[in-house]
Specification:
Blueprint: H1 5-11, H2 25-33, H3 47-57, E1 64-66, E2 73-75, E3 93-99, H4 104-116, E4 119-121, E5 124-126, E6 130-134, H5 140-152, E7 159-162, H6 166-176, E8 182-186, H7 191-201, E9 205-207, H8 212-224, E10 230-233, H9 242-254, E11 265-268, H10 275-284, E12 287-292, H11 297-310, E13 323-327, E14 336-340, H12 343-356, E15 360-365, H13 372-377, H14 383-392, H15 395-398, E16 403-406, H16 414-421, E17 424-427, H17 435-442
Parallel strand pairs: 3-6, 3-12, 6-7, 7-8, 8-9, 9-10, 10-11, 11-12, 14-15, 14-16, 16-17
Antiparallel strand pairs: 1-2, 4-5, 13-15
Helix pairs in contact: 1-2, 4-5, 5-6, 6-7, 10-11, 12-17, 14-16
Bound molecules: iron/sulfur cluster.
């Protein structure tokens, strides 16, 4: 049962003592209702309240951390079925597969690539998450050596150790167990030794079974062994089964009707012929960890872009910090171009400015992440904001002239901005692609 904030509030001691870190019991109740609070922070809860609240306020999907250090990532702790209801919080870890029967140089090369490759998109660094080492040899020593090759690169990226045999698994863990790799996987036959390994090395564990009911039984068995950091293996024989199963898990865990399924999903795309399709389905539909063969350059960018888009907060435009951003090496006489702090606008305009080779200043004002057209229509971009931003960022001391280029779509504001600021306003083109030509022709001091 999901409790609302007021139901939770009724169970709290109502001392308003602030010991939980919140100013009142009501704010603490609201935090618990949103799944972000921790009932243990209130020292005055009686046992009955603890039992009721514990069952209803813990995140419906367990948060599981994989790896350590800078590249560590977390999956799970999601609260909605559909992204537009709120947002998705934890993007899936995408792991490039390497095999223990490959030559060491090949394993090393894929590992180093994941360690160093990154793409910058709308101001965010996008990377793949780690490597999954598969035990195709069946030999513990060969597996251990392959894990050793990954470790020797010093990249410290998260790992999945994919060995069905607990004996082989343990040899891999001896090489990297300190780094919290993900163990793949426990079955009905192997869950006891696999849980013992998960406990010994402090690692999260994937559970595998033939259907959802059996997966639920497996999580209960692992919980009884003391392991709660679990993922559910949905790499069923047919890819056709993935979306219905993943959707059922998400719906049942969010509604808390099947808490035994409240864990992130694991998907191994290498099992399927249509691996790209599997990867896209995993990103779109709830996967927490996805194993894929190493992707080529075009697929890499497409995959990371898709993941970034799905996991961007739909209620919050991606924003730049307002301020002055130089392009090239501008000086006192360089043009100043005003635009909004919607990231896509910023990066689009910046790209065209860079290719124009006219050094200039981008003057970014705070429209709460709205695009130019929307900000003008909503009154967020106005003459007062421009006047205050000129003062705030000391634009008057940055350049010797008093001329401001505004976006074409902001032309209705040109007169008002001139009156309010005393700066001469030049109306730039509507299409950012024309900004280079515009500057070449129009900017003269
Ligand atoms: S610690 Fe407990 S009693 Fe005190 S304010 Fe927080 S919820 Fe209320």
């Amino acid at each position: 049962m999901v409790l609302k904030a007021l139901d939770i509030y009724k169970l709290l001691p109502k001392k308003n003592c602030k010991e939980c870190g919140d100013p009142t019991c009501l704010t603490f109740a609201m935090k618990l209702a949103s799944g972000k609070g921790d009932i243990d922070k209130c020292p005055y809860l009686d046992l009955n309240a603890k039992n009721i609240l514990g069952a209803s306020t813990r995140p419906p999907i367990q948060l599981v951390k994989i790896g350590v250090g800078e590249r560590r990532f977390a999956v799970g702790e999601e609260f909605v079925v559909f992204r537009h209801e709120k947002t998705f919080y934890h993007p899936p870890g995408i792991m490039f597969q390497v095999s223990d029967i490959w030559p060491a140089e090949k394993i090393e090369s894929v590992t180093r690539r994941v360690g160093s490759e990154h793409f910058v998109r709308v101001g965010t660094d996008l990377t793949f998450s780690g490597v999954a080492i598969t035990n195709e040899s069946g030999d513990p020593d060969v597996f251990s050596k392959a894990v050793g090759v990954v470790e020797a690169t010093g990249t410290h990226i998260p790992e999945v150790l994919m060995a069905a045999d607990p004996v082989v698994q343990e040899e891999g863990l001896k090489k990297c167990g300190n780094f919290r790799p993900l163990i793949y996987s426990a079955t009905k036959d192997t869950y006891k030794p696999m849980c013992a390994l998960a406990k010994k090395f402090g690692s999260p564990l994937v559970v595998s079974a033939k259907d959802l009911e059996s997966l639920g039984e497996m999580t209960k068995l692992c919980n009884a062994e003391g392991i709660t950091d679990l993922l559910l293996d949905l790499s069923f024989p047919s890819l056709r089964d993935y979306v219905p199963a993943a959707t059922e898990i998400r719906q049942k865990s969010i509604s808390r009707s099947a808490p035994e399924l409240g864990y992130p999903i694991f998907l191994d795309t290498t099992r399927y012929e249509m691996q790209d399709t599997a990867l896209v389905l995993g990103i779109d539909k709830y996967a927490g960890v996805i194993v894929t063969p190493a992707l080529g350059p075009a697929s890499s960018v497409a995959t990371l872009t898709l993941r970034q888009n799905i996991y961007t907060d739909p209620q919050k435009p991606i924003q730049m910090n307002p301020g002055i951003y130089p392009v090239g090496n501008p000086g006192k006489e360089s043009p100043v171009l005003l635009t909004v702090n919607f990231s896509l606008t910023y990066f689009t305009v910046q790209g065209y400015l860079e290719s124009s080779r006219v050094p200039c200043y981008m003057f970014i004002v705070d429209t709460e992440g709205l695009s130019v057209l929307t900000a003008v229509a909503a009154g967020k971009l106005n003459e007062t904001l421009v006047r205050d931003s000129i003062k705030k960022f000391d634009l008057e001391n940055l350049v010797s002239h008093r001329r401001l280029i505004i976006p074409g779509y902001a032309s209705p504001l040109s007169g008002k901005i001139e009156e309010e600021t005393g700066w001469k306003v030049l109306v730039g083109p509507r299409d950012a692609a024309e900004i280079g030509d515009y500057l070449q022709k129009e900017w003269k001091i």
